[in-house]
Amino acid sequence: MAQIPWDIKDFNITEVCVKNGIEVVTFPYYRIMQCIHIILCISSVILLLWVLTKCRSKLTFHYNIRVLFMSLFFASLLHASLMAMFNTYQLVLSFTYTSPCDVILPRLFYMCIHLPYNFSILWIEGAQLVMILERMIAIFYVGRYERCTKKLGHSLLFLSFFFPLTELIWAYADETFEAPQISCLNTPVSRTKQINILFIFSIVCHILAVTCFVVVFLCHRQRSRMAHTLTGRFQFSENMISSRLLITLSSIQLVIFLTYSVAIMYLRISFDPVKGSAPMQKSNIMSAYLVPFYTILLPLITMFFLARVKQTRRSDIQSMVQVKSTGQEGWANYATQLQQQWS
Predict the structure, then answer these.
(1) Distances in Å between the alpha carbon of 207 and those of 41, 134, 245, 297?
(2) Confidence (pTM)
(3) Domains of the chain
């Protein structure tokens, strides 16, 4: 994450506030990126709330994946709300400040936004990972998973909260937040190492999880063609539908997080504190922060998915109920009916 490479105790206060505060927040490029983020985040909040209130009943998945999906939505809603709040506050402040140091964020305000902001990112990542785990369990136990209780969903939901919270406590233990900050995206200098470790760990886990899930999904698609019973076919079909949505969302999230990480690494390495422009660097960091794009794509993709899945599900059901009566599959269907009749 980005950080402010200065200590206010070593310089003239006003000079530092002008160089590392006023020049940044009043930079046109920085303001443009703030406006873009505000529009994206407010739009995300509206769309996320719309899906949560109007479209939630249309997610006719198993309870376990549905509750985890809602967890992902609430994590994205938290992130979008915090980003909209902070960017609006700072944009207004950049026009209304009376003294240069007014743009330095109050310590309590910075803590109240920065900590939940980081938690929301870790929560999004955690929700995606437990959703992948749940779908893999559903695929392996196809045919029996419909009888699975809600305990699995509740346990995974707890993990999606617990692990991000534990990671956040580990990263910020004993942090005093004394260093002045102009952005809630900035990480305290003393915590940069821990935050970098967390994000690298999360990205590696995400890559491994998505890779394993895609392999399992492809194998599952092959197995779905061998399903003989109507119940088995329907469960295979439902697993395929929810898995496609999850693969799409996970892939987009992975691309966004990787792009942001690579961009930040490049900006840090290439920036020259002596010759470089601090406002330009901060603006580039702001433009490289693509998570708001994910929070707006999440409800859009979900609504598009729901619009198509209804028609697809009807078509699948019609094809599944047309039980084949000839050949090997016909014999399997006939044998199943006899077994049910005599049992």
Answers:
(1) 26, 17, 17, 20
(2) 0.80
(3) 21-317 (1.20.1070.10)
